[in-house]
Amino acid sequence: MREAIRKTPLSVALVAAAIAGAAAASAADTDALAAKVRAREEAFAKTMADRDHAAFATFVADEAVFLGRTELRGRTAVAVGWKPYFEGARAPFSWKPERVHVVDSGTLAVSQGPVFDPDGTRTGTFTSTWRLEKDGEWRVVLDSGCPPCPCTAEPAKEKK
Question: 31, 60, 75, 85: most buried, per Cβ within 10 A?
Fold first, then answer.
């Protein structure tokens, strides 16, 4: 004969604490992963500043899709398509992550932030989707940006 599970205040509290603990652990895990992805995005951007095309390509997934003036599919096509941006002593643009979010499974992340011209004027916004690869490295699988825009530091006020 099976005994009925009694709902005592203590058992309810223990279950609630376990659920809350799992949610907190998950949030802590995704926060730690987001910090790793942010560091990867910053290192990715540094390849442009350092004019290091070979290092740039190592951040791109084999099956990446980069959307811009044209669609580039695959690491090789992205590397070839972006090669002209690495010519010359001065980078034609730079970027930095402002927001990074990781899905609860810890395998995909999105980073987003401003793009700047060589003089530091904001000219657009990038969005990159990162995937945790089998070798344990985060690589970009999808990348796009908005066209140059008159971006402002503060959102425009609504007209009434």
Answer: 60
